[in-house]
């Protein structure tokens, strides 16, 4: 059962890697050629030792005269072959790993949101820091050795058989012992390696969370707990590595013993043959020198098998990612021109997250184009999910979203996403300068456009006052900026994308009322000459009271819809929320959106 499983894995591993190996077939061809050079050199050197010993015993200086330069030539060929072998193996291994890791990376970039949220960052990291490097066993020296060993075994056996068949036959008896122990070791190592890789992934997750939750850990005095958790994980990893070492240790002890016993037996019986005149001293030297090559391919083959198990369990983990469906055939890209939106409709949408009951059940909504639409509702009502569905991060189980009358299922991911510019609740900035963070929005943006958007987002003056202006580094995830500054940069980035639909999810929540008003005013001016539909999710209801349409949601359902004055007159969630907020003194803005322009 286990054996079958392993053969299946071997097939899977090679079928996944085959295209990458074939891409570098010239280098692999060169390495394969060197396999035969190495076999020829092994036989030639052993023959050389025997020949020069016999020549010395018989004082045959004539023979030695041409044997010495031949020996030098063999050394030169051996040096050249070692150099080329090292170089070509490095090229082959690293080129395959480079191409394959890019493939895995691109695949992850295309995994649909639903599957992606189920993945752990530590697992994902360890695919690249650990698993891909563990593939060496099947693409580098492991693969070459697997190809080389049967040939070297056959060549040496035939050569030794010609020297003395009785001795050759004797050394073959070690074969089954070495092979069986190798296969058992391989299977044991495989399970252990899987545990090690899982543990490394858990450590990566812990490291990720620790460094990202740096201030939370300090504030909650969690240092001891986290340190203990890290130490416990490291201890478990240490124990797993130790049992790996024990397994490998026993295996090498066994291999050494097999090799030494074969060597000693050949030497003893061979010496007996020499004393009987059946074998020359030189031939015995050749024999004991070569007999090692009869034992080591078998133990080595088993060792390579163990290495292969490590690669197979790494491949098993990577394949789980590669088996995930992709949302598009190629990486999406931004279209050259601004798309036009004439209608947006969500029709009969039913959607639930993995393992949860339906959040939306036959949900319908027509979004008026060129207007400002506000979505309000209690936490967990499904407002953010609506944004994710519009952008195709998640797919509804039934129903469809129609853009310009076409269901989004008939659009490419690039087409669907180019309709929207999104400022999400959690702002993500990338390491690099402010300029780099803004210019990711679209290709070919000018400095003037960048500053215009920064101005509209109310962040230009702040940036201009910095010693390095737009070239200031923002730190990892924008750590060197305040929450409000990050939000304003994200708004500027979204404005620069110049998409026909702007999705603002609590995008000004970190701003004070004064700044919020200024940002909205400047945004209106910037957007006044573009047809833009703005959909806002806001908890501060005063900020959306002038919206063209207010959609009130509760548990995935629309419970009220209309203009502020209209729905305030009805009994329902909206007037209740407004009353609650005014009782609590949530600031209300007299000058909110002028909805005629955006
Ligand atoms: N990735 C996810 N996997 C599983 N459930 C999710 C996921 N994201 C959201 N949910 C659940 O879906 C529901 C709606 O979440 P959503 O974020 O859309 O609400 P929301 O109205 O935007 O809330 P808030 O105002 O608090 O941001 C919640 O019950 C939430 O727990």
UniProtKB/TrEMBL annotation:
SMART domains: AAA. Residues 344-580 form the ABC transporter domain. The keyword Transmembrane helix applies. It is found in: Cell membrane. It is a multi-pass membrane protein. Belongs to the ABC transporter superfamily. This is ABC transporter permease. It comes from Paenibacillus ferrarius.
């Amino acid at each position: 059962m286990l054996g079958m499983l392993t053969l299946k894995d071997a097939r899977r591993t090679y079928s996944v890697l085959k295209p990458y190996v074939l891409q570098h077939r010239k280098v692999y061809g060169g390495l394969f050629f060197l396999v035969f050079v190495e076999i020829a050199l092994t036989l030639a050197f052993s023959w050389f030792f025997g020949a020069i010993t016999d020549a010395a015993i018989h004082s045959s200086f004539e023979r030695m005269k041409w044997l010495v330069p031949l020996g030098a030539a063999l050394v030169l060929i051996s040096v050249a072959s070692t150099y080329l072998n090292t170089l070509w193996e490095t090229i082959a291994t690293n080129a395959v790993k480079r191409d394959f890791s890019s493939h895995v990376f691109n695949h992850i970039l295309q995994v649909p949101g639903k599957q992606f949220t189920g993945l752990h960052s530590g697992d994902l990291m360890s695919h690249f820091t650990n698993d891909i490097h563990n593939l060496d066993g099947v693409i580098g020296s492991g693969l070459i050795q697997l190809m080389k060993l049967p040939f070297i075994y056959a060549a040496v056996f035939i050569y030794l058989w010609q020297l003395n068949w009785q001795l050759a036959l004797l050394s073959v008896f070690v074969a089954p012992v070495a092979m069986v122990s190798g296969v058992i070791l391989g299977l044991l190592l495989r399970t252990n390696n899987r545990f090690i890789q899982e543990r490394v992934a858990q450590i990566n997750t812990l490291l990720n969370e620790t460094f990202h939750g740096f201030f939370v850990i300090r504030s909650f005095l969690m240092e001891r707990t986290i340190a203990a958790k890290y130490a416990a994980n490291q201890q478990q990893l240490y124990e797993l590595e130790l049992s790996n070492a024990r397994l490998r240790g026993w295996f090498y002890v066994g291999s050494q013993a097999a090799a030494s016993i074969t060597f000693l037996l050949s030497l003893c019986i061979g010496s007996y043959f020499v004393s009987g005149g059946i074998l020359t001293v030189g031939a015995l030297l050749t024999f004991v020198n070569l007999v090692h090559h009869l034992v080591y391919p078998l133990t080595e083959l088993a060792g390579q098998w163990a290495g292969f198990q490590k690669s197979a369990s790494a491949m098993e983990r990577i394949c789980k990612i590669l088996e995930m469906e992709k949302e598009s055939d190629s990486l999406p890209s931004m279209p050259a021109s601004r798309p036009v939106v004439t209608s947006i409709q969500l029709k009969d949408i039913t959607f639930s997250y993995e393992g949860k009951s339906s959040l939306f059940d036959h949900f319908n909504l027509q979004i008026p184009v060129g207007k400002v639409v506000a979505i309000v509702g209690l936490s967990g009502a499904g407002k953010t999910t609506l944004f994710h569905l519009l952008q195709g991060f998640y797919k509804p189980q039934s129903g469809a979203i129609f853009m310009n009358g076409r269901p989004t299922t008939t659009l490419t991911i690039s087409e669907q996403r180019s309709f929207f510019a999104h400022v999400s609740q959690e702002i993500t900035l990338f390491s690099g300068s402010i300029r780099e963070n803004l210019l990711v929005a679209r290709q070919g943006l000018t400095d003037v456009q960048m500053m215009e958007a920064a101005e509209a987002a109310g962040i230009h003056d702040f940036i201009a006052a910095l010693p390095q202006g737009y070239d200031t580094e923002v730190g990892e995830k924008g750590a060197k900026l305040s929450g409000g500054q990050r939000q304003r940069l994200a708004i500027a980035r979204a404005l620069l994308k110049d998409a026909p639909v702007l999705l603002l999810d609590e995008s000004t929540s970190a701003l004070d009322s004064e700044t919020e008003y200024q940002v909205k005013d400047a945004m209106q001016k910037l957007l006044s000459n573009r047809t833009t539909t703005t959909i806002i999710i806001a908890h501060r209801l005063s900020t959306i009271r002038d919206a063209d349409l207010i959609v009130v949601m509760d548990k995935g359902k629309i419970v009220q819809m209309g203009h502020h004055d209209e729905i305030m007159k009805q009994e329902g969630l909206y007037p209740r929320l407004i009353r609650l907020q005014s009782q609590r003194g949530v600031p209300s803005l007299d000058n909110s959106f002028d909805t005629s322009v955006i």
